[in-house]
Specification:
mainly alpha, Four Helix Bundle (Hemerythrin (Met), subunit A), 2 domains, 12 helices, globular
Length: 240
Amino acid sequence: MDIVNTYIQIVSKNLTHNDMKNQNNPFDRRSFIKKSYLIALGTGSLLTFPQIITASPLTRQDDINIIGPKKGFSPQIGTLVSMMNWMRMVMLSPVKGMSVEDLDYLVDENANTIGAMLWHLASTERFYQIHTFEGKKWGDWDEEDKLNWSIASGLGDEARKTIKGHSLDFYLQKLNDVRENTIKEFSKRDDDWLMEVDKEWPWGATNNYCKWFHVCEHESNHNGQFKFIKSRLPSTDNKD
């Protein structure tokens, strides 16, 4: 019963303000905590349980494989940041060390290059910044942002004609510059902002969380394309 009592003490100390309002019945409260312990015990071993209850609730941004709240952000925004950071690492893995020729390679005449898609990912994030941080309607971009991001955002013929001849560092700089601004703006906001719902969004009522999760999963989508194109590169032996 020592583990039970330890668990009760830890949970009691971490009860939220609302939980504390409803402590009129000590027996029910203690019963609830014990039941919670039994549920947790049923899903893990006694050896791992102490590690779970003593884990730190916040981790650093550079703890890349720990998804969850991060220092410097509200809980849900920190969790979103952790997912975006992890996806960025995974997305960039297959393009590591690529030459200009690799980045400009077209699988066929209707395809997009890896270079153009990297710029496309930066442009998507930039447009979501303008929309969610600055409160502008989608497409209401100033001339400078149109010039810098619209072609990459649209991909297709215009991107095939104009986005070429750049090194990997060129695209990484764009991705990094945009992401730095995203992180800075996230740190200024809270979970209430993240949960705000836009009822006019084209695919239906959507909150800021969903919009920014789309930015994250968008990179996952193109990650698959990067891997496919890499397997077709003349510089690749097709065994990767």
